[in-house]
Amino acid sequence: MTFKSVLPFALVLTAACSVTQETTPVEVQLDPAVAKSHASALTTAVASAEADDGLAITEALGSVSDTSVALVPKTKSGARRRLVRSTVTCACDAAARRCDFDGCRIGSATVAGSVAWGDGVISCTGLSVDVPSQAGAVSEAHATIECALTYGEGSVAGDVRSTGRAVVDGVTYTWDATLVARDVTFTSSALTGGSVEAKASVTTSSATRSEERLEASASVSLP
Fold first, then answer.
1. Which CA distances in Å does 114 have to 2, 26, 37, 92, 139?
2. Nearest Cα to 141, choosing from 157, 149, 129?
3. Which one of 78, 90, 139, 214 is most buried, by most CB atoms within 10 A?
4. 122-139, pLDDT tens digit by residue?
5. Are 137 and 80 in contact (CB under 8 A)?
């Protein structure tokens, strides 16, 4: 066998060996209590929109993103609140009913993108949250949030999607989660009706254990 005849075979073998094996997802039960807490966060976003408080809307949407990994019970320890209004450099235009974030800060998080509300609609465009490496359990985090919600007096519908990555206690969590609110109704103190459909895919990995991918989905009736 000549060198020329061996070379194509070697290239094919090298390419085949370099293919990365994807982790096989494992279907697990979704935590309905977390899905209900996400529905409550949407009602907070609506109340904040009615009060023309754009930062509070952003925090409410951030709380859904921050706890997305908790939809999967086994990865609940990766959930951390990251948008906490301790110190703020971000500002919103209440008159225009819009927040345009350009790398400003809410607590230790850097925020970019925009949130708009009014005329019964809440929308997010390019909204992202970054937390730098810091002392404590959370080493770093990055999340993106997409939302398209409609609301009225005591009602909300629409969807929120969050994708991100965070390192907590040496474990890396990567997630992709979606919450769809269907005719959710509420009072000032409680959810009263409707349902939410929640879906989450969470991958975990660390230096001491192999990668694991867990997926969960469910439709949860309210209240």
1. 62, 35, 24, 10, 26
2. 129
3. 78
4. 999 999 999 887 655 567
5. yes
